[in-house]
Design goal:
4 helices; 0% strand; 120 residues; mainly alpha
């Protein structure tokens, strides 16, 4: 699922860039699309998380989004450093950043968001 999430992220980013949207706005749009995709796929297929109430579902989703905000900041930093400071093609930097982000997202999901012990 992580690879599909990267694909969703990079394709939505590339489409935004293709139509002329700024690098960082494109990154935010692709982040929103991929976070929604990844929450659903992680919940249902990767971690098979069960929530009994709407409140549990809401807390789980908010935890997921906050973890992803952290990795969005990391990704934006990598994108800035690679494309603006080192002058590397932003699509290449985006793909490289996704390798780092997929690892961080999995660790955060496994240890915090979808952990089997629901005591938070």
């Amino acid at each position: 699922m992580g690879a599909l999430g990267v694909l969703v992220n990079v394709i939505s980013y590339s489409l935004c860039r293709f139509i002329g949207i700024d690098i960082f706005v494109s990154n935010l749009i692709s982040w929103i699309v991929s976070v929604l995709f990844m929450y659903i796929t992680n919940k249902l297929f990767v971690f098979k998380s069960k929530t009994n109430t709407k409140l549990e579902l809401f807390k789980e989703f908010i935890s997921f989004v906050f973890a992803r905000i952290f990795t969005l900041v990391v990704e934006t930093g990598i994108l800035y450093l690679g494309s603006k400071v080192l002058n590397i093609n932003d699509i290449i930097v985006k793909v490289i950043a996704q390798v780092v982000i997929i690892i961080l997202n999995y660790i955060l999901s496994k240890l915090w968001i979808f952990k089997k012990d629901k005591k938070r």
